[in-house]
Amino acid sequence: AQSVSQHNHHVILSEAASLELGCNYSYGGTVNLFWYVQYPGQHLQLLLKYFSGDPLVKGIKGFEAEFIKSKFSFNLRKPSVQWSDTAEYFCAVNARSGGYQKVTFGTGTKLQVIP
Amino acid sequence: GAVVSQHPSRVICKSGTSVKIECRSLDFQATTMFWYRQFPKQSLMLMATSNEGSKATYEQGVEKDKFLINHASLTLSTLTVTSAHPEDSSFYICSAPGRTSGAIEQFFGPGTRLTVL
Questions:
Q1: What is the secondary structure of B8-24 as a DSSP string?
Q2: B106 CB near a chain A CB, below 8 Å?
Q3: Is B101 in the A-facing interface, judged by CB distances under 8 Å?
């Protein structure tokens, strides 16, 4: 069965600091990888996704993520965070399981950016 | 892009009653849809996979008799929480897979906040 782990549960940064959130998954086959953001009181929004090709993917709002197949990782990065980036971030894996496409989410990382 | 809607967005009910939540894919068809539950300050947990024309597939630990799923058409799946109790209060989210850029991506509904009194 596929699983996703996010090691950082709560991250506090000052504005302009750089961000890297870890995500590791376990699955032996082909996966599609995603990062979602959930702002307080709002529903999930897609930040970026990896399907194939260039392992460095760029998403909205200056976020990027790098897929490292050998490490089963898909870490999220942003060079300079803003207060408006305060939110919860979820890594997710979409893979085939039992004949069906199935999405598994990590436990989430709460990011707090201090002005 | 593909849009998934949910209705209602918020529901409050008394303990012991049943609540139906609808998930619709508005501009595409989905033979499968997924139902998740998100407790406060926690991640999304997959509850079940809804399959058009056949029985839903439930994740381990999810009571199929309590959470009834019906995939009535290629654009509609419903989740009925039967005999709801306060511990069923949660945020329920559905998703439907659609193709973008040649690969499959999940499109999420906005969620339904269920409060059981």
A1: -SEEEE-TT--EEEEEE
A2: yes
A3: yes
Q: Whole-angstrom Cα distance, residue A104 to residue A92?
A: 6
pLDDT, tens only, A10-59 = 999 999 999 999 999 998 788 889 999 988 877 788 899 998 889 999 99
A53: Cβ–Cβ under 8 A, 6 or more apart, which residues? none
Nearest CA-CA distance, residue A105 and chain B, Å: 6
Q: B-chain residues within 8 Å CB-CB of A52?
A: 103
Residue pLDDT, tens place only, B74-102: 999 999 999 999 999 999 999 998 877 66
φ and ψ at residue A83, rounded to 5 degrees: -55, -35
Q: Give the whole-angstrom CA distance, residue B4 versus residue A2.
A: 25
